[in-house]
Design a protein that fits this description.
two-stranded antiparallel sheet; globular; Thioredoxin-like protein; Thioredoxin-like_sf; Peroxiredoxin_BCP/PrxQ; antioxidant; peroxidase
Length: 200
C-alpha cells in the first residue's frame, strides 16, 4: 500500500512557539465523536494516550493543489496516519493504551479514511472546533475552513506530558513517539498509572 509517499520538496515547518503553552495542561472535559460512532472524553481516559492532530486527509482521487503543498507542514496526513497504523503493535508493547487521530473533518469523511487505510485506531472529529479552541491550538485557514496544524500529544491520565510540534517529516511521526517512549523506559521515568511496562 503506497500511501506513505509525499513530495520531497515540500517546505519544512518551523517552531513558532504556538504550542509552548500545552505542556502540563489538563485535558478539558470535552467529548468528541469517533469513527466507531462513540463519543470519546479524552480527559477521562486512563493511562497513556497518543493523539496525532492533522489538518486534513485528501479524498480518493483528489488532486492536491500546489497552494496546499506550499503551506509548511500541511502535506502528509495520509503518510502520518499510515505510520501509526504500521507501528500500532509497537505502541501497545510500549504501554500506550490508546492512539487517536484528530482533525476538523466530519466523522463520515473520517470513516471513509479509516476504512480505506485500514486504520486500527479511531479518528476523532473536532468539526465544531471545541478542542481547538479549548487548547488554543494553531490552525491553518484553508478554503474557508479552520484546519489544525500538525501536532502530536502524549497524554497521561488526562494531562499533556509531551508535545511534538512541528511534526516533520509526517511519515516519521509515529517512530518519533516510539523513540521517546523507549527513552522514557530507559530512564525509568513512569507516569503514575499510565503504563504497563513490558516484561521480557
Amino acid at each position: 500500500m503506497s500511501h506513505t509517499t509525499f513530495p520531497s520538496d515540500i517546505p519544512v515547518p518551523t517552531d513558532d512557539g504556538a504550542c509552548d503553552h500545552l505542556k502540563g495542561m489538563k485535558m478539558p472535559p470535552l467529548s468528541l465523536p469517533a469513527t466507531n460512532d462513540s463519543l470519546v472524553k479524552i480527559s477521562s481516559l486512563q493511562g497513556l494516550v497518543v493523539i496525532f492532530c492533522y489538518p486534513r486527509t485528501g479524498a480518493p482521487n483528489e488532486t492536491i493543489p500546489d497552494s496546499w503543498n506550499s503551506i509548511p507542514g500541511a502535506r502528509g496526513c495520509t503518510p502520518q496516519a499510515c505510520s501509526f497504523r504500521d507501528l500500532s503493535r509497537q505502541f501497545l508493547t510500549a504501554g500506550v493504551n490508546k492512539i487517536f487521530g484528530l482533525s476538523t473533518q466530519d466523522t463520515s469523511y473520517q470513516q471513509e479514511v479509516k476504512t480505506r487505510l485500514n486504520l486500527p485506531f479511531e479518528l476523532l472529529s473536532d468539526e465544531k472546533l471545541d478542542f481547538v479552541e479549548a487548547l488554543k491550538l494553531p490552525t491553518i485557514d484553508w478554503e474557508g475552513k479552520s484546519l489544525i496544524k500538525r501536532i502530536t500529544l502524549a497524554i497521561a491520565d488526562g494531562k499533556i506530558v509531551k508535545i511534538w510540534y512541528p511534526v516533520f517529516p509526517p511519515d516519521q511521526s509515529a517512530q518519533h513517539v516510539l523513540d521517546w517512549l523507549a527513552e522514557e523506559q530507559t530512564n525509568e521515568q513512569k507516569f503514575v498509572g499510565n503504563r504497563r511496562m513490558s516484561v521480557t
